[in-house]
Amino acid sequence: MTLCSDEEMTELLAAMQSDAPDELALAERLIDAYPEDARLHFLRGSLLAGNGRPIEAHAALSRAVALAPEFALARFQLGFFELTSGEAARALATWEPLDSLAGDHYLAHFVTGLRHLIADRFVEAIAALQAGIAVNDENPPLNRDMQLIIDECAGLTSAAPAAPADEASATSFLLEQFGKGTTH
Amino acid sequence: MKRPGLDLLLIPPRVEASLWRRFRFERETRCREQIFTRYRGLARSIAVRQLNGRPRNGIEQGDMEQFAYEGLLHAIDRFDPLKGVPFGAFARRRIIGSIADGAARMTEIDAQYGYRRRVENERARSIGIDAAAADPLRALAELATSLAIGLMLEGTNLVEPANGADHRPNAYESLAWRELQALIAREIGRLPDREAVIVRQHYENGIGFTHIAQLLGLSKGRVSQLHASALAKLRARVGNKR
C-alpha cells in the first residue's frame, strides 16, 4: 500500500485551509494516485460534507474507516455525521470501537458526551463535552463544534418545560374541565 | 416520540440525504415510505391548488390527491439524489403532470364513481365476509365491527387536524371518545410494522391501497389482506380491553 507523501498531504491541507476552489479536485487526484490512503478519503469526506454533498460525504468517510479501522478521528467524524443525519443507532455502532481509546482521550470524552446527549441526559453531556474540550489541543475546530452543542444543550436544561403527557387520562381530563371553572 | 437531545444535533439536509442514501444505495425499503410521508403534504397542497384552478367537472379532492400521490411515487422512484437538485422542485413538476393526466383520463362515470366510493369498496372487499363461515351471523357481526373501526379511525383524526379545532361534542362523550381513541392509537403502535404503516397511511393520510402497495413494494391484494388482518387485530384487542 502506497501512502500519499508528506509534501502532497501538506499541499492538500493548505488548499483546504485557504478554501482554494480546486481543493476537492486536488483531493480526488491524490485519491486516484493513492486509493488506499484513508486520510485522503477522510479529507475528501470532510470537503464533500461542507459542500452540501452528504451522500458522497458519508461514502467517503465510510471508506476511510474501512481502510483504517484504527483511524479514531475518521471513525468519530463518521459517527458524528450519522448522528447529525438522524441515524443514532448506526452512530453508536460506528463509535463502539472507540471504547478502546484511553479514557482521557478527547474523542473518548466527546463520544461519552454525545451518548449522554442522545439519551437526553443534558447535565452529564455538558460535563463530558467540556472535559473533552479541556484536553483537546490538537483539533480546535472540533472544540468549536462541541462548544456549539454545549451552548444549545445549556439552553435546553435551563428552559426545559415539563414534558406534557401524551394523552390525558380520564381523571386529568375531568380535572381540567373543573379547573376551567365550567359549570357542566 | 420526542427526543430533544437527538433533535438538537440534527442537520435537516443530512437527515433527508440519509433517507435517500438508505433507500437508494442500501436497499432499506422503509425509507421510501418515510420520504413519501415527508412530501405527502406537498403533494396534497398541489392537489388542492389544482382542484381550485380547474373547472368543476365532478372530480373530488380525494381523486386529485390520489393523482398527486401517484406523481409523488413516480418522482421518488426517478429522482437521482446525487444530482444536487432539491427533491421538492423535482417532484412538483411530476405531481402537477400526474394530476393533469389523471384528470384528463377520468371519464364522467369515473367522476361519479368517485374516490370515496372506491375507497369504501376496497375496504369492504378487504375485510369481506366469508360466505362459507360456520356462524354467518358472527361473521356478519365481525364485518360490521371492522367497518366501524375503519370509520372511527378515519373520524378520530389520530393526527391533529390542521386548524387545531376541537370537534368533541361535550365533556362526557369526549371523555369516552378520547379514551377509545388513545386505546386504538396505542394498539396501532403494537401492530406488526407493515400493518401499522398500512393503517396509518390509509386512514390518517387517505392513501388508497394501490399506492400503499407501490409504496411498500407489495401487491395490492397483499395490502388488502394485511389491512384485513390489522383490523381483525384491532377489533380483538379493543374488544378485550373494554
Describe the model:
The complex is a heterodimer of chains A (184) and B (242). Chain A is mainly alpha-helical and 184 residues long. Chain A has a domain at 1-71: Serine Threonine Protein Phosphatase 5, Tetratricopeptide repeat (Alpha Horseshoe), CATH 1.25.40. Chain A has helices at 6-17, 23-33, 38-50, 54-67, 72-84, 88-95, 106-118, 122-135, 140-158, 170-179. Chain A is globular and about 50 Å long. Chain B is an all-alpha fold. Chain B has two domains: 11-112, Rna Polymerase Sigma Factor, Chain: A; 119-241, Winged helix-like DNA-binding domain superfamily/Winged helix DNA-binding domain (Arc Repressor Mutant, subunit A). Chain B is built from twelve helices and no strands. The A-B interface holds A 52-56, 58, 81-88, 114, 116-122, 125, 149, 152-153, 156, 160, 163, 167-168, 170, 173-174, 177, 182, 184 and B 2-6, 8-11, 13-15, 17-18, 20-21, 25, 81-82, 84, 170-171, 174-175, 178-179, 182, 185.
